[in-house]
């Protein structure tokens, strides 16, 4: 009984996989930047947006560490030489 359901699913799967894909849904015009979800016309605007996006991702671990130290009541950065124990 189990074999019949496996064969039925494999038949359905083979029919789905052999069906040709529609080309109309995957057509883009051949224009620079048309496939990107943002505009590349303004270099300054693109640099600011990329700097904010990448800077946010880079700074998040440091902000999280600062927040955890602040909650614990410990200084995140202590200037000067390390304390001798």
Automatic annotation (TrEMBL):
Subunit comment: Component of the cytochrome c oxidase (complex IV, CIV), a multisubunit enzyme composed of a catalytic core of 3 subunits and several supernumerary subunits. The complex exists as a monomer or a dimer and forms supercomplexes (SCs) in the inner mitochondrial membrane with ubiquinol-cytochrome c oxidoreductase (cytochrome b-c1 complex, complex III, CIII).
Gene Ontology annotations for the cellular component aspect, listed alphabetically: mitochondrial inner membrane; respiratory chain complex IV
Keywords: Membrane, Mitochondrion, Mitochondrion inner membrane, Transit peptide, Transmembrane, Transmembrane helix
UniProt family annotation: Belongs to the cytochrome c oxidase VIIc family.
InterPro entries registered for this protein in UniProt: COX7C/Cox8, COX7C/Cox8_sf
Protein's name according to its UniProt entry: Cytochrome c oxidase subunit 8, mitochondrial
Stretches that traverse the bilayer: 46-69
Gene3D superfamilies per the UniProt record, alphabetical: Cytochrome c oxidase subunit VIIc
Domain of life: Eukaryota
Pathway: Energy metabolism; oxidative phosphorylation
Membrane topology per record: Single-pass membrane protein
Compartments (UniProt record): Mitochondrion inner membrane
A biological process from GO: mitochondrial electron transport, cytochrome c to oxygen
Function as written in the Swiss-Prot or TrEMBL entry: Component of the cytochrome c oxidase, the last enzyme in the mitochondrial electron transport chain which drives oxidative phosphorylation. The respiratory chain contains 3 multisubunit complexes succinate dehydrogenase (complex II, CII), ubiquinol-cytochrome c oxidoreductase (cytochrome b-c1 complex, complex III, CIII) and cytochrome c oxidase (complex IV, CIV), that cooperate to transfer electrons derived from NADH and succinate to molecular oxygen, creating an electrochemical gradient over the inner membrane that drives transmembrane transport and the ATP synthase.
One Pfam family matching this protein: COX7C
């Amino acid at each position: 009984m189990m074999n019949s359901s496996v064969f039925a699913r494999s038949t359905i799967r083979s029919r789905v996989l052999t069906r040709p894909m529609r080309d109309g849904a995957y057509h883009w015009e051949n224009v620079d930047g048309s496939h990107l979800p943002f505009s590349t016309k303004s270099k300054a605007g693109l640099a600011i947006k990329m700097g904010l996006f990448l800077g946010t991702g880079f700074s998040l671990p440091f902000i999280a560490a600062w927040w955890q130290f602040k909650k614990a009541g410990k200084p995140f950065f202590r200037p000067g030489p390390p304390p001798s124990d």
